[in-house]
Here is the input.
Amino acid sequence: MQKRLSAIEIIGVSKQFGDFTALHQVDFRILQNEFFTLLGPSGCGKTTLLRMIAGFESPSRGTILLNGKDISDSPAHKRRVNTVFQNYALFPHMTLSQNIAFGLENLGWERGKIRARVGEMLEMVHMSQFAARKPDQLSGGQRQRIALARALAPGPEVLLLDEPLSALDLKLRQSMRDELRRLQRETGITFVFVTHDQEEALDMSDRIAVMGNGHVQQIGAPDEIYEAPQNRFVADFIGETNFLDGEVVSVEGGHATIRTALGIDITAAQSGVQGPGPAVLSIRPEKIGLDARAEGETRSGRIVSRNYMGGFTHYTVEAGGVSLRVSQRNAQSRQGRLDVGDEVRLGFAAENARVLGQ
Amino acid sequence: MSKGFRIWGLVPAWALMLLTLILPIFIVAGVSVGERGAYGGFEWSFDLTAYRQILFTLGWTDELEFDPKYLIIIARTLGYAAGATAISLLLALPVAYWISLQSARDKALLIYLVTLPFWVSMIVRVYAWLIILGNDGMAETVYRFFGGSDVPGFLFTPGAMLVGMVYSYIPLMILPVYAAVEKLDPALIEASHDLYGSRWTALRRVIIPLASPGLVGGSILVFVPCLGTVLEPMLLGGGRQLMMGTLIQNQFGGARDWPFGAAIAMVLLVLVVLVLILNARRATRQLEVQA
Amino acid sequence: MSASRSVRHYPGFRLLSLVFFLWLYLPIGVVIFYSFNDNRLVSVWTGFSTKWYATALSNQSLMDALEVSLVVAVLSMIFATTIALLAALVLTRAPGLKFRRVSETVVNLPLLLPEIVLAVAVLILFSQIGLNNGMVRLVLAHTAFCTPFAFMPIRARLQGMPLDFEEAARDLYAAPFTVFRRVTLPMIMPGVFAGAMTAFVISMDDFITSNMLNSGGATTLPVYIFSLIRQGTTPELNAVSTLLIAASLILATLVLVLNARAMRRSA
Here is the structure.
């Protein structure tokens, strides 16, 4: 990873809109040929960042490098990056071919080359037979493909995608995910993908930057982000988790020992813990086992609610005055059916938990 | 958009309006305190004769005598404008409401039919009423048909002027009222009935309050041009009953008293600006209440 | 009729509305009807004839006035639409623009103030600066009061057009003027067309200002018609009025149909 070159470097970038600070001193790099996702809730600054890379907004402070060149002050039409817009922004008065040719014409390509490239692009997204149609004659998924073809046609150094799947219905979204991954692999272009949908991000990305409140909270591969969240925000935003308040009694390198209301000291990987003091223990519902599946030191608890979800059953278990959400896979039918009011043993392996600073 | 364009894109509009509107209005103010020229036109000076003339005439021995004749013209103008606005309002509410109940296609068609006459030249529209109301015109024929023996003469009456003014400007009332009632949620009217309100209650306590932005907006759109109207009093009123518009017109035509015409124009301008300011204050108050 | 419909309906509103629409079209119908009257007296029907159209079309003064009106309307339309388009682009597309509110008010000023005041104002201005060319006077004054009419539909169209399209064009390497020529202008064209047509009709129809500025060689059609009316109603007037009505209605329908189609497409 280290040897790969950066496609984009964000250096100390801040953005103010009047009194509101959308981004605080953001620093990170996006590597060449990677599928990089900016993930966060709405208002976290991810779209602002994308628009600054595209050139629609300029940073209040800081620098953006594209393949080593400072592009902070170059206008959008001089940057070799292209965008797939959330609502596609296909020009309604032009045919699909004209839409795809638009960027090439502005770059001064000659006619013959443009025609060839447009054909190639239409083929790539399986839309050749629709070349002469106008965008309003297409379905959502088809518009999406044309938006992709239009943005990829000029061969940008980086492709920016602003929540491109949010306008599609559920079924199409899944197949477009695969399509996007395929296109990224085939073209070898760096993709910067913006989404608020964690499942999309985990499914598609090489690396994810989780953003919140104008800060980059964590950058890492999907499994790192899920399994080893660095702070409460990331643990909370990605997937579901139980937070148990507690007191750190000792810290040793990357691990901390925490005492929680469960009444047992747990030693687990930590981040953000400086020394003894208040912290939280984060444990995901599916990492907790009940009865036979309970691991580590177990405790007794009582089931207070039960939701049958098909593949899983979700329980709320009360133990030592705290309630924990527990999710169990329904591997075999009718095996050990638990009901509200039942007493159970519960436990989890310490390596599946995280101690996070306040 | 380039930085330069931001500046010069607005320059033509500003230049045009400054040159043909804002600057000339100041000149009118200047002329209104000027002196009447010997052969029409005027000469620059500072002289309030024109304004004094609105209230007083010079008596036999050069003393000032209060003369309400121009005040009466101003009051008449306000009265006709208010009357035309009130009639438009009373007609527009039921018509706009009825249109809003039709199917989407009929609504579009009916609104098109409301706006269509507005595209027809004003002079043609006023002329049409001239033939309808004139001697042996349609109005008299219908009157006789229903047994009226001595025809009262419809033309050159206050009624004729009001009909002409309402006809000229009523689309400006219907459109905003329609825009307001069209947005009205039918469930609100049903709720009013559900809570034991009569039709009249629903109209008075639900429809009219919710349509009021349109009613007020439409009233201003009708009232302001009625204040300055020229054609209706001249053709349908027969020029016997002067209004401010015709009075101004005469000073720049036959009477050739530019300072006095300019002074009346300033009075008219002040009246209109007053209406606009009152409306703007009401609108901001409403916004504050909502906030 | 369902119960929910019946509580919304008011007895009498339907009848009143039908009478209203009859009343609205009565004058137009009467003028058209009598324009085909054979009799010299306007309101005494004696038989069908198109002779008054022939009389009207061979009236040289009338044709001259029509020519003045057309030239003034076309020039005012071009100037007003161009000025309105530039202003609307800046007012809707420049972020953080200073004087935005006051600029919008200034563009719309002719709509806010009574026309007779503006007519007096330009008359005095022109006589002060010694601008005596009747046509130039008319075109200048008409351009001023046509501008807000051209401005409104153009601005509405620009406001209804998401910025995405222009951003997409910039993203695809289009320089600012290319963005305007290839994306913005084609997409707001229905608004520009509606604005231009409205400006044309407003100029063609104007009486108050044109009458105030009336001087040798620059008598517009409405002003000439007014002078004819003062001499008494004639069937010839009915024929001219009918032709004007037909022209207005055709233009209005064109604008409304094109606008409706554009709305449907963007929906």
User: Anything to note?
Assistant: The first helix of chain C runs from residue 3 to 8. Chain C touches chain B through 87 residues (CB under 8 Å). Residues 36 and 50 of chain C are 6 Å apart (CA to CA).
